[in-house]
Amino acid sequence: MKELFQTIRKAFRLEGEILEILPLTDGGIHGTYQIRLDTGKIYIFQQINTGVFRNPDAVMRNIRKTASYLKEHAPEMRILHFYQTGQGEYLFQNWRVMDAIDGYSLKTCTNLHQIHQAGKAFGAFRKAVSGMDSAGLEQTISGFHDTRAYFQNLLNLKSSLPEMEILRSWQEQACFVCDCYRKGELPFQVTHGDMKCSNLLFDRQTNQPTAVIDWDTVMSGMPVYDFGDAVRSFASNVSSSEPDLSRVGISMPKFEAFATGWLSEHPDRNLLIPAVFSVTVELAVRYLTDYLQGNIYFRITHPEQNLIRARNQIRLAQEILKHQSEMEEFL
Ligand SMILES: Nc1ncnc2c1ncn2[C@@H]1O[C@H](COP(=O)(O)OP(=O)(O)O)[C@@H](O)[C@H]1O
Ligand SMILES: [Mg+2]
């Protein structure tokens, strides 16, 4: 491994010898390593998962456009800085190198104050990119958050599982938000695409958010889905792999902490709550589809895991429906 990292270090013209290689495991997609050199500098070496991102060059172009926009329009925001190889490329055999930002990430967050601050940080990111022209970004995952298309894929498959019928019965309600955008009633805008807990870094001293990271899915999309996804991540009681459905639920205090943070930065309330339901059902649809197709997309550790995840998200969607009017009233 060290030899490979030496080769990458040289390709990106980083001065110094490698002192330490630390695998970072909070992400779910790429291979990520923190590399410390004897110069004292710390970098992130990351191998792009090309199964998910078929066009890594397009991913890098999107990230660079976003970074230069934010540098100009939101100079207070911490941006991701990537290095170039001697040939002026941002990738070397699908590896890339960025500055490590000092801070820690969390897989789940239980502290209400931190959840509130996370809401502010993600709301601030949403606000910061809201003036950027989304047409300049490339669609790096085809059909990303096309809830209708995900439903069509699922419903084309044959299955007698009861989960199939539950999801079918939710199709229209779950596609409502997505249809509003597709009909042009709301504008597609620049979205982060993966606003979850592990994609935020917190300062080691103050425990305040310092940077929104993982910009790989920044593209044109539905900003309310960013909110929905973040609520799913921050306000769920358990992870999506939890098999005990009695533990699955949404915590209203966590929801309120996150939402007040978000709204303090970006007060547009339209369709936020319906998006929480849509994005959850969409994920259930994707898990069930993957299970029925032989687990090609989501990494599994046992054969039933994607079915368990689908059941988990269905239960979460039921819990969201139960709390929907309470959440609307709170906003
Ligand atoms: N620039 C960075 N500085 C410090 N840590 C980082 C940085 N980028 C990523 N990380 C860490 O690596 C983890 C995985 O990186 P991420 O880009 O989120 O990949 P994935 O797409 O696999 O989630 C993050 O959750 C975070 O802990
Ligand atoms: Mg991540």
Produce the secondary structure layout:
Elements: H1 2-11, E1 18-24, E2 31-37, E3 42-47, H2 56-73, E4 95-99, H3 112-129, H4 147-155, H5 162-182, E5 189-191, E6 200-202, E7 209-212, E8 219-221, H6 223-235, H7 252-265, H8 272-292, H9 305-330
Antiparallel strand pairs: 1-2, 2-3, 3-4, 5-8, 6-7
Helix pairs in contact: 3-6, 3-7, 4-5, 4-8, 5-8, 6-7, 6-8, 8-9
Bound molecules: adenosine-5'-diphosphate and magnesium ion (MG).
Adenosine-5'-diphosphate (ADP) binds near residues 29, 30, 44 and 100.
- Domain unit count: 2
Separation of termini? 50 Å
Task: Quote the average pLDDT.
Answer: 96
CATH superfamily of the largest domain: Aminoglycoside phosphotransferase (APH), C-terminal lobe
Output the structural class: alpha+beta
The CATH architecture term of the largest domain is Alpha-Beta Complex
The helix-strand sequence is HEEEHEHHHEEEEHHHH
Helix content: 40-55%
Poorly predicted residue ranges? none
Query: Strand fraction band?
Result: 5-15%
Please report the total strand number as a whole number: 8
Gyration radius, to the nearest Å?
20 Å
List of distinct ligands in this structure: adenosine-5'-diphosphate, magnesium ion
Strand order of the largest sheet: 1-2-3-4
Q: Major sheet: size, sense and barrel closure? A: 4 strands, antiparallel
